[in-house]
Amino acid sequence: MLSEESVPVIEATLPVIAPHIGEISERFYLNLFAAVPALERDLFNRTNQENKDQQKALAGAVAAFATMLITKDAPPIDQVMARIAAKHASLGVKPVDYDVVHTPLFAAIAEVLGDAVTPEVAAAWDEVYWLMAKSLAAQEAALYEQAGVAPGHVWTSVSVLETENVAPGVVALTLGLMDGAPLPDFRPGQYISVAAVFEDQTRQIRQYSLAAGRPDGSWRITVKAVPNGIVSVALADVVAGDNLIVSQPSGSLTLRDGDAPITLVSSGSGIVPNLSILQYLVKTNSDRQVRVVHVDSAPSSHAHRNEMADLVSQLPNGSAKTVYTADSQAALNVQSFQRTGEVYVCGPVPFMRTARDLAVEAGIAESAVHYEAFTPGSWLGFG
């Protein structure tokens, strides 16, 4: 909790700092990359840096965290930060990294706000930062322990066992360990980070949802080649026998235990985490009530179409509806959702926002609507 001394300072300065926090974030990244060039070269998403999404994400995270600290009846902080912690764990973020970030961030605050940053103000925002850092670091430590790895040691080499074109411009890659041993188990709905190393030895990292591969304990990811995409285009060209560097499984869009009804909602390549959940339900002979709603632009672009239908057919209480339209949000309505149970959503952020709102309108508790988002700024929620 924020100290009593800092609460009024944050309440008074948040409205002043908030309009400048985007500028502070941009200055911070300039300071950070000047101090540690390897972070820009090997860790941060270049595309998100260029279009300012990363800067907006940091600004939103800091402002949202500060707001929660001074808001009565705010949701549990660790719960809200869990999605960011999972992303950090998939990147190998370590506690020392928060020390690395601290100095350039507070230098940026001083540069932008000048004399407004009194010692009292600096101390209060310093407290906000370390509360946020400690919340994330604690959750990340737990995730590393669950994975059985030392903090930050998440990377391993895998071999591409098989490639399959599952839709135009979409390829499924089956991955296995080079010695043929089974890959670690993952929870249905999780993802991995894939680190692509380029000829100039720079590295870019992207996240891809996991599905089960062969029965021998392999993994499968599905990659849609995005126009001008740095990593997706490179991955679309890999062939069987190539090697990739991937992280341990991570992510919070994981199937909750129990017998409550399930609604799986997806759009486009967002089908993969829900496909993984279906695989698990079939494997465990689940008799849960399962409704699957998938939206795609056309049958030809519907990746894993037949596989999804086959899995649903094996569930005694499973049903599926597919809508083909260019307007994915308009494809959903209140009747798309069961009125009880859990909802799992993956797709573009506007689609997920619409799904969340309609699920709540249908009677589902907002806390029972689970989603995965790889876009900076959407990790904290949809507002």
Give a structural overview.
- This protein has helices at 6-17, 21-35, 37-42, 46-50, 53-69, 77-91, 95-113, 119-147, 230-236, 271-283, 305-313, 349-362, and strands spanning 156-167, 170-176, 191-197, 203-212, 219-224, 243-246, 262-267, 290-296, 318-324, 342-346, 369-372.
- With 383 residues, the chain is of the alpha/beta class.
- The protein folds into three domains: 6-147, Globin-like; 156-246, Translation factors (Elongation Factor Tu (Ef-tu), domain 3); 262-372, Nucleotide-binding domain of ferredoxin-NADP reductase (FNR) module (Rossmann fold).
- The chain has a six-stranded antiparallel beta barrel with strand order 1-2-5-4-3-6. The protein has a five-stranded parallel sheet with strand order 9-8-7-10-11, sandwiched between helices.
- It is globular, with a radius of gyration of 22 Å.
- Mean pLDDT is 89; it is low at 376-380.
CATH architecture of the largest domain: Orthogonal Bundle
Low-confidence stretches: 376-380
| Estimated structural class | alpha/beta
Tell me the CATH topology of the largest domain: Globin-like
- Average pLDDT reading: 89
What is the strand tally? 11
CATH class of the largest domain: Mainly Alpha
The profile of the biggest β sheet is:
6 strands, antiparallel, barrel
Content of β-strand: 15-25%
The shape, in one word, is globular
In total, how many domains does the architecture comprise? 3
Cofactor: heme b
Pfam families: FAD_binding_6, Globin, NAD_binding_1
Keywords: 2Fe-2S, Heme, Iron, Iron-sulfur, Metal-binding, NAD, NADP, Oxygen transport, Transport
InterPro entries: Cbr1-like_FAD-bd_dom, FAD-bd_FR_type, FNR_nucleotide-bd, Globin, Globin-like_sf, Globin/Proto, OxRdtase_FAD/NAD-bd, Riboflavin_synthase-like_b-brl
